Amino acid sequence: MKPGFYTIMAAQFFSSLADNALLIAAIALLYQLQAPAWMTPLLKLFFVLSYVLLAAFVGAFADSRPKGNVMFWTNSIKIVGCIAMLFTLHPLAAYAIVGFGAAAYSPAKYGILTELLPPEKLVVANGWIEGLTVGSIILGTVLGGALISNRLSLALLGLDLPFIDTGIDTPPEAAICVIAFIYLIAAIFNLKIPDTGARYPQQGKNPLRLIQDFQHCFNTLWKDRLGQISLSVTTLFWGAGATLQFIVLKWAESALGMSLSQGAILQAVVAFGVAGGSIWAASRIPLKKSLSVLIYGVMMGALVMVMAIYNRDLLPDVAIDLGLFQIPLYLLIAYIFLATIGWLAGYFVVPMNALLQHRGHVLLSAGHSIAVQNFNENLSVLGMLCLYALLIWLDVPISIVIVMFGSFVALVMIQIIRWHKRNQAEYDSLHLIGEHKH
């Protein structure tokens, strides 16, 4: 890999670390405000809303200047969102500002990979980026849970500046201060990202023209036989992944009797599995074989449904001695189970992501193709989170929600596999994988 790739990885790690720690801190802030339970999944909804509303514009913005410069300024917007959350702006609105920065950050983050690396390196690059991103999700989720825990939050609140009243009086506020500093570290790495030298035609500024261009890019990617399959899979994955975050927290509370900070560790276990599956896919699946992993999506959906029948009362109340510490048997089984779900998810989504980036780069430009991808994926996130919030508002038992969720994922993946087989029966499109930009 070129040296600039590692700088991109570092910038992405710290930015994603802060994103995920901030989600836990924002949930704690909602608890502190005694907000209703259905408002919690809306945090993610407000975060991804910008990905959908700004999709026609962020791709053009990412292609209008060097990607490292774009990443620096958009990461700075996330810092503004943190500060706004500290200054009593409602968590939903403040997290929406962070989402605005993330939406503009994403086309540059992924687009620069296709500028920096040849097609045959994209699966490996995506595997490492995805693995590192998921590693940051693990650490960010654990960090967020630790920052709001009694022990660490009391230590942070005890750090007073002489003669200055900071107004930081609660654990969530102390956590947000630390998270803003992590965003600052990411911004420093953004400044070190090299200019790849890639330049695109002058980007228009007329909103209607930009929307028309985006519609053309949208149609181009969905009409491509490889693009439509990979886009379908990643669209489903990101909607399901965002919803699964909140399902795991609710399931941990109802089935395992865990608190928010403890449930955050279960989220991290899923993410740990995704990281393992991502890195395994990067080492085992070449771009030419990327479509061979579709069946793992069906398996993931089927495995999720098993969560509905699992709880701590199914197993005897015994602890397993792991040497340095002991862990209850029911919790160890839950860890293994959730890590397996994560592994399956990472194994099938990384090759799909790489294939989609490759087809987008061949047919469109780096920024525009990622913007189309973000639009579809986050529209899926919005739809599935709204449905989940509605089910929670209607007080549907979490076991029923889990069965509905898992069966939906499995059935949609089966339909996507059939769709790909129909495409191949009409015309063999696999030879297009690896071709260079037109």
Terminus-to-terminus distance: 24 Å
**Topology as a string of helices (H) and strands (E):** HHHHHHHHHHHHEEHHH
Query: Which of globular, elongated, flat, extended, rod-shaped describes the shape?
Result: globular
Strand content: under 5%
The helix-and-strand class reads mainly alpha
Query: Using DSSP, what is the number of strands?
Result: 2
Low-confidence stretches: none
Could you state the oligomeric state of the chains shown? Answer: single chain
Q: Specify the helix fraction band.
A: over 70%
Helices, by number, come to 15
Sheet of most strands? 2 strands, antiparallel
Strand line-up of the largest beta sheet = 1-2
Q: How big is the Rg? A: 21 Å
Average pLDDT across residues?
A: 81
Description:
The protein is an all-alpha fold and 438 residues long. It has 15 helices and two strands. The chain has helices at 3-32, 40-53, 55-63, 67-86, 91-116, 122-147, 150-157, 171-191, 207-223, 225-255, 260-284, 295-306, 329-363, 366-393, 398-426; strands spanning 319-321, 326-328. Strands 1-2 form a two-stranded antiparallel sheet. The longest helix is centred in the last third of the chain and has 35 residues, at 329-363. The radius of gyration is 21 Å and the shape is globular.
